[in-house]
Amino acid sequence: MPDMLSSGRARAALASSARVSVELLLVFATVAVALWGLARMWSVVWPVIIALFLTTLTWPLTRALRRRGWPSALAALLVTLLFLLAILGIVALIAVPVASQSGELTDGVVEGIQKMREWAAGPPLNIGDDQITAALDTAAARVQGSVGSLVNTVATGVATTLSGLVTAVLAVFLMFFFLKDGPRFLPWLARQLPGRLAHDVPVLAERAWDTLGAFMRSQALVGLLDAVFIGLGLWILDVPLVLPLTVLTFVSAFVPIVGAVFAGFVACLIALVSNGPTDALIVLAIILVVQQLEGNVFQPMIQSRGLGLHGAVILLAVTLGGSLAGIVGSLLAVPVTALIAVIWNYLREQLTEPPQEPEPDKSQTGVAAPGV
């Protein structure tokens, strides 16, 4: 009899495990199909994501104007124009000082190349001008032999640039419409959904919006810390173009990995051609220290407080996102993880909290309400 009971329990356990496995496979298949469809529609989805990011940054000002009685369309238009002016101002802060000191930078580049040639000609390398000329001739021959691939690379770069411009323009237009009609979305969504979904989905959407805003604010704070510390180091070393480099560091913080590498490369290059290799190495050390503090200390701490995620979870999410989808995956890893946490917490609340029973109408039961 005990053997029959144990075998029955084993069969029941196996059946339950098989059912759970099938359900998990169905969930994974659904997620895979959803990701496949998302990839097919990425040219439309990506501008929407960028517009949502921009809207979270500009919504506080729009909300303040609407509370002062501004029409929604006028408030959205003004904030969109101010945003475009801010972008142009950032470009001017970077481009104008660079253009004004372009002559000095060009002379510094030429002088730096000459110093590198003199250093290479001495011990221990002992590379003469004839060897350098031969290397340049070899490189030129290789370039001439790969003209076709270079043309394809240039064409691909031009197409990517045009696609980026179209995405940026579309994102700005979407941002305007989100700012203008955003508060109408949740009531409209509640009217379109049946039953309990009319309550659950708008609540989840509102929490997701708050989480996205917290992510953008934390990312801006991390970029500000990077810009302050790196800009302070450049100012102490008397590196030219401190203000444009500081602004570039702040803006590039919104693009993971590539943004930091690009801003650091520009800062080291300017330090090399203007101050020499010693200061360039010091600038590189400062940038590496600040980037390590950002990636391992500042960003996990700030985002874990704003998003309710542990710092280790954020590090793992960025690593996984970068390995799966490169730069875009690194950019979206943290907000996607935070949104998953929002959905999970809401489901846990709904499954663990007992349903609230409506209070009896005391006017019908004959019991007077307090104070009556």
UniProtKB/TrEMBL annotation:
TM helices/strands, residue ranges: 20-38, 44-62, 74-96, 154-179, 220-237, 249-273, 280-302, 314-347
Superkingdom of origin: Bacteria
Matching InterPro entries: AI-2E-like
Record's bilayer topology term: Multi-pass membrane protein
Location in the cell: Cell membrane
Region of interest (Disordered), ranges: 353-372
Pfam families: AI-2E_transport
UniProt keywords, alphabetically: Cell membrane, Membrane, Transmembrane, Transmembrane helix, Transport
Stated family: Belongs to the autoinducer-2 exporter (AI-2E) (TC 2.A.86) family.
Protein name as annotated: AI-2E family transporter
Originating species: Streptomyces shaanxiensis
